[in-house]
Amino acid sequence: MEKLLPKAKQTEFHWLKLAKKRQLTKTIFFLEFEIPQSLQVHFQFEAGQYVTLKYFSMGQWNQNDFSMTSAPYEGKITLGIKINYEKSSAKDLFENLKVGDLLEVSEPKGRFTLVSKPHEFRTIIGFAGGIGITPLLSHFKNILRNEPRTRLFLFYGNKTKEDIAFKNELDELMNSHSDRLKIYYFYSQEKIGNGLFEGRLNEKKVALIINQILLLDDTDEESTIWDAVDEVLICGKGEMIKSVANACYHHGIPKRNIHFELFEEFNEDIYPVEKDFPLIEDIEVDFKLLHHQYSSKLKNNKVRLLQQLLIQGFPVPYSCKSGICGSCECVLEEGDVELLENEYLTEKEEKAGIILACMSVILSKNIKVNFDLN
């Protein structure tokens, strides 16, 4: 996962030494950082989290977020990074960073996490597209080590076989835990002689997976494997997440058990909005951002708060615009908004007045928010 976003919340960085670097595919490379004893307390993390790398590239400083592939028990930070285009900062980073170099790495963060339940019998499935495998690899390694009763199914989509990142590591995991882990690869631009595994991971493909792979359950002859699914993990491009998440929901998985992580900007809702809101016009907005006070007037509430402020040119922090990443988190100090479904905020945070600007429909003539949470 790579995110490009301005930050309103302070991020703590530390210098870490690069221990390993290698190319995995034509466009994806691997980095491993050592964590010295003196910094281990700052780099304790949960499976599924990410770090920010700060580095100089093409005349400017960059702060980009990348999901970790390492599991907490491994005691190191490992990343899979994709080079999306020829002149990207990621390509510059790969070509210029050498083993032994020091790089500024943030303390781990993110909420694409699961509560560990080592004493329960669970079924967890994952859907990954391309570089979206990175946080799922962290999750699966962690679950296989710490939850002996949990079984896992991974459905991993790529363009071709040559594009599969971490293929060797995934196959080693499956061979070592063949009784609890099954991995299925899908190809959108390569014919392999089996239509089930050709094409993108989407709503139609999920239906086929349920009917052809997640069938009779050896542990319960009266139900299917799909009936036993406890949690779903999804990471990839926005369209893939939207299609797969809705397919899982429509096939009976509660939304609270469907977890997803984006690795690019996505401007649509993951789930359809099923509610109409009263029209509010001529809205006055006051907000604090990076220690500056701003005021603006919005024509109406047909577009959500974040999107309206971005249209007007304000440097509001964002990444996904879909209620997943939490980058636009802020405190509602005055006024009313309707906060739509999101994957980020806890009930405690919502009760404390914290909202996500990207998921906020304004319901009053005046609102005041504060993006400087620190």
TrEMBL record:
Sequence ranges assigned to domain 2Fe-2S ferredoxin-type in this UniProt record: 283-374
Lineage top rank: taxon: Bacteria
Entry keywords, A to Z: 2Fe-2S, FAD, Flavoprotein, Iron, Iron-sulfur, Metal-binding, Oxidoreductase
GO terms for MF: 2 iron, 2 sulfur cluster binding; flavin adenine dinucleotide binding; metal ion binding; oxidoreductase activity
InterPro entries named among the record's database cross-references: 2Fe-2S_ferredoxin-like_sf (IPR036010), 2Fe-2S_ferredoxin-type (IPR001041), 2Fe2S_fd_BS (IPR006058), Beta-grasp_dom_sf (IPR012675), Cbr1-like_FAD-bd_dom (IPR008333), FAD-bd_FR_type (IPR017927), FNR_nucleotide-bd (IPR039261), MRET (IPR050415)
Keyword Zinc on entry: no
Pfam families: FAD_binding_6, Fer2, NAD_binding_1
Residues of the FAD-binding FR-type domain: 11-115
Cofactor(s) needed by this chain: FAD
Gene3D superfamilies: 3.10.20.30, Nucleotide-binding domain of ferredoxin-NADP reductase (FNR) module, Translation factors
Alphabetical list of PANTHER family matching this protein: 1,2-PHENYLACETYL-COA EPOXIDASE, SUBUNIT E, NADH OXIDOREDUCTASE HCR
Protein's name in the database: Ring-1,2-phenylacetyl-CoA epoxidase subunit PaaE
Organism: Kaistella chaponensis
